[in-house]
Amino acid sequence: MTELPSYLPIELETTTFDLIVVGTGIPESVIAAAASATGKTVLHLDPNQFYGSHSASIHLNDLTSFLNYHANLPSTTAANTTSASSNHDFTALNLSLRSLYSNVETANYAPETLAQHSTKFSVDLGGPRVFLCADKATDLLIKSGINAYLDFKGIEASFIWDGSGRLCDVPDSRSAIFKDKSLSLLEKNQLMRFFKLVKRHLGASNGDDEGRESSKISEEDLESPFVEFLKKMRLPPKIKSIILYAICMVDYDQDNLEVCKSVLKTRDGMERLALYQNSIGRYGASGALLYPTYGIGELSQAFCRRAAVKGCIYVLRMPVTALLMDQNSGQYKGVRLASGEDFFSHQLVLDPTFIVPLPPASSPPDLRESFQVLSLKDDKRKVARGICIINSSLKPDISQFLLIYPPRSLFPEQDTSIRALQIGGDLDQMAVCPSGMFVLYFSGLCDDAGQGKRLLHAAMNALLTLPVSESGSAAGSEDAEVKPTLLWSMLYIQELTTVPTGQYENIISTPMLDGNINFSDLIESTMVLFQKMYPDEVFFPETPSSPEVPENSEDDTELSLEN
C-alpha cells in the first residue's frame, strides 16, 4: 500500500462500542442498522469518501479511481508486522488489503461530452441488479422501515435474446402471453397450461382452496432436473429457454446435465416461478422488477440512515490500519485508525477487502486455528461485469428493461447466461445519467478473465455500434444504423468470496456481491451472519406499516414499498 495521507482525529466522546463495522457495502450496512435497532452502540467506518463500498453508485471519475486502485493492489502482501504498546495490554496487527477486481478495461469515445456531464452519472459498481417485488430483500425493506428512505421505478419490460439478433418479449403473465405477437397460438396454449399446472401445484402444496392434493407434482419429479420436467411437459425449446433463463434466472446451460455446473431441480424451479409470479403487480403497475432511483447504492445509504437514527456514528474517509489483540489471550479488542486513534468493541465486522492477520505466535494454538479459517474463501468462479453508456435506447419506446442472453445464444461455447439491464433516458426520472443517455450493465459468471471478457464483448457487439469496430456490425444482428452508439465502457472481472463456516466469535468478514440479478441470497447470508453474532436478538423488529399502494395505480413515476 502507498503511504497513507494524514488524517485528523475524530475525537469521539467514547472509545468503546458494542460493534465496529468497517465498510458501508450492503452486508455491512444491514448489520449496522440491525444492531443499532436492538440498542447496540455502533461505530461505522469507511475509507472511501462515499457510501456503498463494493455496492456503491458513484460518479464516473470515482468509479474509475475505485476500480483502478483495487485492481492494482499487490497480489501478494508482505508479512504483517506487529507492534506492542508499552502503555496498554494489546498488540497491533497490521491489516492488509486483497485485490477483488482485475482486468479493468476502459474506453471513452466521447470524452468532451462525458466530461461535461460526469457528475450527472450515478453508476452501479455491482450491476446489473434489481429487486423482485416479492423476494426477501424487498420484504426486509418494508419490515425494517428502510422503504421510507427509498423511491423505486418499475422495470418496464423483460426480453430474451433469440440468437438471431432479436429481443423477444418475456411473456411472464396471462395478459403478457395473450399480447405476445412472437408466440404462435400453440405456444401460447402450451405456456398457459404450464402456468396453470404450476399454480395448481403451489396451491395444493400451500393448502389453498385452489389446489387439490392430486394437483401436486410427484416427489420423483420434484427431485428431478427442472429441464427434464419441462421436456416431460412437452414444452418447445423456445418456451423452455424463457422459463429457465428469463423467469427462473438460471445461470448455467441446463441442456447438458453431464457438464452443467449447477443443475436446477424441479422443486427449486417451482419456487422461483412462484416468486416471480407473486412479484408481478405487487406494487401497482410496476411488473415483477424494481430499481431504486439514484442506483443500487441507495440501498446501503438507506440502511446507514436507519442506523444513524438509532444512534450509529458514521465516519467516512477513515481507513482502519490494524487490529488490536490482547497480548495475553490473543483475543480481539479493537481497531487502530489511520488517525492513530484506538477504538474498542466487543464485535468487529470487516468488508471482504481486508485480509485478517494471524495472531502472534505466542497466542494459544486454538486461537491461531480460528483465525486461519476466518479469512474469506475464494470462489473459483468470477463475475465479468460491464458498464456501457450509450446515446439511445435499445428499444425506442422503453427506457428501463432487463435482457437475458441464454447459454449458447451468442456463440456455441457460451455455457452461462449473460444479463443486461438498461437504465436511464431521463435525468429527472431515474437520476442515474443525463437525459438522452442510457447506462447499460452486463454481467455473467466465468471461470477466468479471458472467458469473462469474451462474454462481455460478444454481448456488446450484438447490441451496439462500436466506434472501433471495422465492420460496424455484429454478425446476425440488426443493421448498425439502428443500433445505439457506444460512448463509454468499462469492463472488469470481480472475484467472488464466500463466508467460511468457522467464524471467529468476535470478528466477521462479509461476502462480496454475488453473480445474481437480485439481492435475495446476499440478504439471506447477511441475516445468517447477524444471527451468529447476536443469536438472542431480533433481526429488525417489525415497524408500523404505511397505507397500502392502490392495486390499480397507473402512476409508475414513483413507487414506494408499503405493506
Automatic annotation (TrEMBL):
Its annotated compartments are:
Cytoplasm
Gene that produces this protein: LOC103340330
Q: Which domain of life is it from?
A: Eukaryota
UniProt family annotation = Belongs to the Rab GDI family.
Looking at the record, which segments are called Disordered?
540-563
Bias-annotated ranges (Acidic residues): 551-563
**Per its UniProt record, what PANTHER family does this chain match?**
CHM, RAB ESCORT PROTEIN 1 (PTHR11787:SF4), RAB GDP-DISSOCIATION INHIBITOR (PTHR11787)
Instruction: Tell me yes or no: is Cytoplasm among this UniProt entry's keywords.
Output: yes
Name under which the protein is recorded: Rab escort protein 1
Keywords of the record, alphabetical order, are: Cytoplasm, GTPase activation
Query: Is GTP-binding one of the keywords?
Result: no
Q: Which InterPro entries match?
A: FAD/NAD-bd_sf (IPR036188), GDP_dissociation_inhibitor (IPR018203), Rab_escort (IPR001738)
Briefly, what is this protein's role?
A: Substrate-binding subunit of the Rab geranylgeranyltransferase (GGTase) complex. Binds unprenylated Rab proteins.
